[in-house]
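Late entry, 4'-deoxy-4'-aminopyridoxal-5'-phosphate complex.
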Amino acid sequence: MASADPSTIAYLRDSYRPLAECQVPINLHAFQYGTGCFEGIRGYWDGERINVLFMREHFERLAGNARLLHMHSPSVEDMCEIAQELVRQNRCQQNIYFRPMVFKDGLELGPVLHRMDDGYLCYIIPLGDYLDTSKGLDLCVSSWTRLSDNTIPTRAKATGGYLNSALAKSEALMNGYDEALMLNSRGQVAEGSAENLFLVRDGALVTPDLASDILEGITRFAVIELANLLGIPVVERPVGRTELYRTDEAFLCGTGCQVSWVRSIDRRVVSDTRGPITERIQKLYEDAVYGRDPRFAHWLTPVPVS
Ligand code: PMP
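Prediction complete; structure with ligand written out below:
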């Protein structure tokens, strides 16, 4: 699993310093109660600069989720500037992943969200593939139910909510699968532990709608934009479990996994090779994020390193 180099320069509260010096107390509220919200953002190295993918969109989502959780984030502009400064200070020259977080920075006992200081941090780790994209993924439907919007909203990308993802992902890996799909409390398909799901049914993309207890994935919106451009219909609606076993193609998408094709679900083979629609979406996505297709230049924020 990927982790950050301790000498890398990170940002904590209001200063830049080596990650190894970014310490928080053991009685920190965010540590005790999981009271934080975060983002994962990719930066792609093109040989001269880091192209940060959907930078503004990620920080807008973080600021909105902080508000949802009674937290105050720095301004979107400031968070964008800090991310770019980290690229410059670390002289990054490979694909990277930013982990920004807004968190409850108080030491008081008791699970509340109001009347407490908020902190902000951001650090960078090198990141290649998050899931093994060289082969199709073998998925299972998890025995764990996805958090519902009225428990810990998945939409909020809250740190504490990732216990739900971790239970599902570890169960899947320990049982020999690559990733888990979770059903929501209504028994409909929600998403993976850190990915949104698309099926291909009768030539159309089908994906759980935004009220299906999913994260409003930024890659998900990007895939919809690509499908519109390619003339592939997209249907956002509740998805039944057994549709997973009848689908023509399936893929996961997310900042980490990018576009990753699915080979099987619960030991039912979806397809032994990457399906044609998945292939078109994946190829266009890769051309976009690596800056090879100028139609998607607005997805990227170039940060020169030297
Ligand atoms: N769902 C969950 C639960 C996630 O953690 C992620 C990763 N952020 C996604 C979906 C994909 O979202 P995005 O495309 O914004 O990375």
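The domain at 137-289 is CATH 3.20.10.10 (D-amino Acid Aminotransferase; Chain A, domain 2). Will revisit in the morning.
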